[in-house]
Amino acid sequence: MKRRRPAWARLDDEALLDVRLCDLRLRLAGTVVQGRIARLYRELAARGIAFRPHAWLAVDWFSPDGVPGFAVPFYLAHPRLTRLERKMSGEVEGTNRNWQMRILRHEAGHAIDSAYRLRRRARWRALFGPASRRYAAQYRARPASRSHVQHLGEWYAQAHPTEDFAETFAVWLQPHSDWRRRYALWPARRKLEYVAQLASEIGRCAPPVNGRERIEALADSTLTLREHYRRKRAAQRRRQRLLADAWLRKIFASANRAQPAAPPAAALLRAHKLRLRAAIQKRAGTDRYGAQQIVRLAIERCQQLGLRQRGARRTSVPKLRAALVRMARGYIASDALRMRL
After folding, report:
1. Contact criterion met (CB below 8 Å) for 48 and 199
2. Residue 259, pLDDT score
3. Beta pairing partners, 253
4. With DSSP H G I counted as helix, E B as strand and the rest as coil, what are the percentages for the chain, rounded to 5?
5. Predicted confidence (pLDDT) at residue 257 exceeds the cutoff of 90
6. How far apart are CA 86 and CA 82, in angstroms?
7. Which end of the chain is more exposed for a tag (fewer CB within 10 A), N or C?
């Protein structure tokens, strides 16, 4: 039987933004994403794993520590909400089949880690590192590293030990994965072999953690869509400011440490903004608008922090150009992927 179209789906954007998340009354049953979760379960079964992580709707993709399941963003449950997400956020994470299956395999890795308490094992910690390590506001990727697999992009396995495991698990789980050949000469192969060993060990065992908690479930949220997107944008701006401040402080000096006659750092940015924008577009792969926003943010933060030039202009400009390119790449990584998927 065809599902009836909800009343809110006929609203224009302004009216829809005033609807509370809980009043959307969404469910996974009958959606495209439910079919892809079923596919994930078949992939787990094909690898000899009986465990099935549970899934629920929330505002974003995430798998909470200690919970053997994961949240799916609400905007994937209805095409009207997908269109609103694209308008409000500029991108819809996990829309096409391949992208969504990559995320689901990654989330399954987190859920299995929690279900079987894998991070407590000495071998797990030796290969991936301590799960207790704090997440950095922005990880510094090492593109040349061969100690981590590449799955979701932006070298996300390097973000944290638990992300390293989830990414490794996802590469191993993918059907017809040619990981033995692809990673044959990489140190990361040891991690993949360990995941294969773990799967054979725990495959048919009941997990010690089998709760069905639904953290931050959509049905429990009384926020309106407008409030949700306002908070999302504010959090994004905070991340951007933190990242910008970290890079700019490496190049420029604070007012109390700068030479008395040192010119303001913002003046240097304004004088070279056209060349800086061009470098960001070319080297970081951003569009013109994105490059403009990064330069604008850098000028704003230099002014608010009272930063001043350190050393000669001819040496400051190349450093500034390199820093802004890395900032742009960092924004691509942090905005396209949550730091705790």
Report:
1. yes
2. 75
3. 308
4. 55, 5, 40
5. no
6. 6
7. N
